[in-house]
Each structure stands twice: as C-alpha cells, then as structure tokens.
Amino acid sequence: MRAKTWNVGVLLCLSFAALSNCRSRNEPLLSSRQRRAATDDAKRCSYTFLVPQQRITGPICASATGPEPDKDRVTRMDISDLKEVLSKQRREIEMLQLVADVDGNLVNEMKLLRKESRNMNSRVTQLYMQLLHEIIRKRDNSLELVQLENRVLNVTSEMLRLASRYKELEMRFANLASTVNNQSVLIAALEERCMRGFSRPDLPVVPPLVQVVPETIPANSNRFTNEIQRDHGNRAFPRGSPRMDTPPTADPLGVPPAPQGTLTSDGPFRDCLQVRQAGHSTSGMYLLKAEGSDRLIQAWCEHGLDNGGWTVFQRRKDGSVNFFRNWENYKKGFGNIDGEYWLGLDNIYALAKQADYRLLVEVEDWMGKKVYAEYSSFRLESESEGYRLRLGTYQGNAGDSLTSHNGKPFTTLDRDKDAFTGNCAHFHKGGWWYNACGQTNLNGVWYSGGVYRSKFQDGIFWADYGGGFYSLKSVRMMIRPID
Ligand SMILES: [Ca+2]
User: Fold this and answer.
1) In angstroms, what is the span from residue 426 Cα to ligand 1's centroid?
2) Is residue 23 part of a domain?
3) Which domain holds residue 301?
4) How many angstroms is it from 452 CA to the middle of ligand 1?
C-alpha cells in the first residue's frame, strides 16, 4: 500500500515538473493566441498526463470559434485542478508519512518492550531457581542441625555415663588404696611378730606404721610405684643404704654458689619479710643474714602467697635432691635454692629466733591440689638441745600431722634422738623431728604418682592428708614473722 502510494506520488511529481517547464516556455503563447500557431515551439509542447482517477467534467478547449480544438491542449483549470489534487495528495502523503513514522516508533517501542519482557522473564526464572536452591539449602541445614543436636545429646549422655563410671572407679580405687594401706600395716605387724617369734635380737625392730587412713585419699593416685628419687648424678641408690654426699653448702659461710642473675644485689636482709618491705615483690633467691650472726644465707623468698614475705626453708618438688643425709648436712643445709633444698638447722634456728615467727606448710597432691597447715608459732632450740621443734596451734585444711612432733629433737641416721628404740631416720630415710616415729616426714623419699609400696613409710607423707603410703608431689615449709 505504501509502495503504491509512493509510486503515484513520484509520477505526480514528475508530471508536475514537466508541466512547469512547459508552462514557462509557453507563457507567451497563453497570453497571445494569435502568435501561438505561428511558432514551432507550440508543436513541441505537447504532453500526455497520466493522472489516476482524474475527473474531467468539461471540454479542455473552451473556444469553439477558434481553430480546431487540440485534444492535447492543457487548460489552466486542468492545471489548477491538478495542483489541488497534487497538494491534496501531498498532504495525504505527509499524513501517511506521519502515520508511518508513528508506526515505526511504535514498532521500535514494541521491540524494546518485547526485549525487556524477555529479560524480565529470564530474570524471574533466575530468581525462582535461586529461591528453590535456597529452600533446599535451608531444609538441608535444618536436617543437619537436627542431626547435630542428636549427636550432642548422645555425647552428653555418654559423658554422663562415663562420669558416673569414673566416680564408681574412684570409689573402688579409694577402697583398694585403704585396703593396701591397712594390709601394709598388717604385714608390718606380722613381720614384727614373726621376728619376735624367732627371737633373734640382731634383727632391727621396725617402727610402728602410721595407722591413720584418711577418709579420702587424693584421687588420681592410680599408680603404685617404687620409683626412687633421683640424686644429682641421676643414679638410683639402693633403699636402706645411707647417702653421705658432700653438701653443696660446704663453704665456710654456708652460702652455696648462686646461679648467675637470679639474686638481687640488695641485702642482706634479716628475713624475707624485710625483703618484701624493701619493695621486692618477685619470688626468688635473696641474701639474708640473721641478727647476731655473721653468716650470710641464701634463701628462697615467696612473695606470691598470703601477701608474701615468707622465708622458705624446705622444699620438695621433683626428687632431684637426695635427702637421706647425715647430721652435718642437715645442720648446714643442702640442695638447690631454686629447686629442692634444706636451708640448714643452724640457719633456721638463727632466723626463727629473731622474732616471733609462724610456720606455713604447703602440701600438693598428684592432682595438683594444694592444702595448708599453719602453726601460730615456730622456733627451734639450739644445737645443744638437738634443734628441738617448738610449735604453736594448728589451723588449716591439710590436717594436723605435725603437732605430734612438737617438742621433739631432730634425728638423723647418725644422731638418734627419737623416742623409738631403733632409728626413725633409718626407716623413714631422712632427718626429721621424729617421735616414735610420727605422723609426718617431709624429708623422705620422693615417689612419683602418689600411693607407693614400700616396707616402711619412707615417702614424703603427711598422714592426715593421704595417709602414710601416699607420697606427696610437692611440699614447702616456710616462716614469716607474726603480724
Ligand atoms: Ca631412737
């Protein structure tokens, strides 16, 4: 339809152009009909117009009197009609063009809309897929959560079952340990009776064993061991054989060589409380000198316990030092200040007589639990009195195992001052303020693991905490002036 319209338009334009040319050339003819016939030009200006649906209502030649009307002659009316038709058609064409333009724009818009719609569709599809994926994932997660919850429940019930089983085992172990303790006592009694039955006076008399069996033995003491403490050379020494090592405090001042950089340059102080009051708050080795004594003493000051100021005179912690020693060793002191050591009876005596001191005994079992026994006063008598122990009243949570040793002189293998017929230091393998022989010895053999098997109660024991056959992991004895 549009193509046809254009064809008609082009044809009309061409015709109009030709007509214009003709008119411009034939203008003189139209103004003077007399000269028209005489000129040859008139003959040349003869055209045929093909105009669709052209309505010719009247004759083209108006004059009937003039020369014979020429059928091919064009009148002004024709031209004006033609012009009118042309302009009308032009308007129509313009209208059609406008419509066509509008249609084109609409088509473009439609195309854009279709494209957009396709995009939207694909986006919606994509979102839908994402949503599906998310839903599936959430369902999986919730399933997983339920599974985890079930597992947690299972593990918890298993844990509870194990805990009750553990408690049961612990009780059984405590019973067994008590039985072992009692049997050891019984065996010792039977042995003694047996020896008496043979009536051989050359056999040594065994001291009575501690009968105290505490209600609760520290747990985790599930190893029976006869591991003997190590000495400096890492050599185990046969049980019962005395060791007479040269003490490390053999120099005239009684000061063993100190490790480099561990001792403050200040001092000497009268005791560790004075060290603390001088502003030293770090536990470690310090140089002391008791009043009225010209002997310098190295000692460990404990400042991390009960406001500090404690002078440690005995410490066991790893079995690195042999405590089965003679009188002279116990008098002067031995061991390593930053490890296991004995400060020396002379030094303890000199320090403790400066003022009123109290004693703190710290005891640690193999579970790492620490308990304490504190005595309201502490001092030693002089060497001529056998460094007799003088204690005040007990308080604490370790049980009072030391009061039975109160007022007793110190006994070593080579100086027997105990109340027993034999030598308690021989059976308990360390110097101590023995009675006959007593409820505690913190200078015995360091056994690892807790409960130990031995013919004698020769471990580091505190009868009210663990019994006579429970060797403690670590112990400390320390003094501080009474506030
Ligand atoms: Ca004796």
Assistant:
1) 10
2) no
3) 272-481
4) 25
CA of 393 to the centre of ligand 1 (A): 26
Domain presence at residue 3? no
Of the candidates 343, 342, 341, 345, which has an alpha carbon nearest to the alpha carbon of residue 331? 345
314 sits in which H/E element: strand 310-316
How far does the centroid of ligand 1 lie from the alpha carbon of residue 436, in Å?
8
Kindly give the distance from the C-alpha atom of residue 432 to the centroid of ligand 1, in angstroms, as a whole number.
12
Q: Tell how far the Cα of 435 is from the centroid of ligand 1, in angstroms.
A: 9
Q: State in Å: Cα 413 to ligand 1 middle.
A: 10
**Quick check: is 138 in a domain?**
yes
**Rounded distance from Cα 446 to ligand 1 centre (Å):** 23
Domain boundary among 154, 178, 194: 194
Terminal Cα distance for the chain, rounded: 124
Q: Are residues 165 and 289 located together in one domain of the fold? A: no
Question: If you measure from the C-alpha of residue 236 to the centroid of ligand 1, how many angstroms do you get, rounded to a whole number?
Answer: 27
Look at residue 450 and tell me if it is in a domain: yes
Helix axes 76-198 and 2-31, enclosed angle (nearest 10) = 150
Q: What is the per-residue DSSP string for 435-447?
A: SSS-SEETTSB--
Given 154, 171, 194, the domain boundary residue is 194
Contact (Cβ atoms closer than 8 angstroms) between residue 378 and residue 352: yes
* 138 and 287 both lie in a single domain: no
CA of 204 to the centre of ligand 1 (A): 12
Q: How far apart are CA 114 and CA 120, in angstroms?
A: 10
Residue 437 CA, ligand 1 centroid: distance in Å? 9
Q: Are residues 183 and 284 in the same domain?
A: no
- Ligand 1 centroid–CA 434 distance in Å is 9
Q: Please give the chain's pLDDT, 483 residues, in tens.
A: 444 444 544 445 444 444 444 444 444 444 444 455 445 554 555 556 565 565 656 555 555 555 565 667 778 888 999 999 999 999 999 999 999 999 899 999 999 999 999 999 999 999 999 999 999 999 999 999 999 999 999 999 999 999 999 999 999 998 888 888 888 888 878 877 777 766 555 555 677 777 555 555 565 444 444 444 433 333 333 333 333 343 444 333 344 444 444 556 677 999 999 999 999 999 999 999 999 888 999 999 999 999 999 999 999 999 999 999 999 999 999 999 999 999 999 999 999 999 999 999 999 999 999 999 999 999 999 999 999 999 999 999 999 999 999 999 999 999 999 999 889 999 999 999 999 898 999 999 999 998 888 888 999 999 999 899 999 999 999 999 998
Looking at the fold, whether 166 and 291 belong to one and the same domain comes out as no
Do 310 and 181 lie in a common domain?
no
Residue 248 CA to ligand 1 center (angstroms) comes to: 28
* Number of domains observed in the structure of the chain: 2
179 shares its domain with 280: no
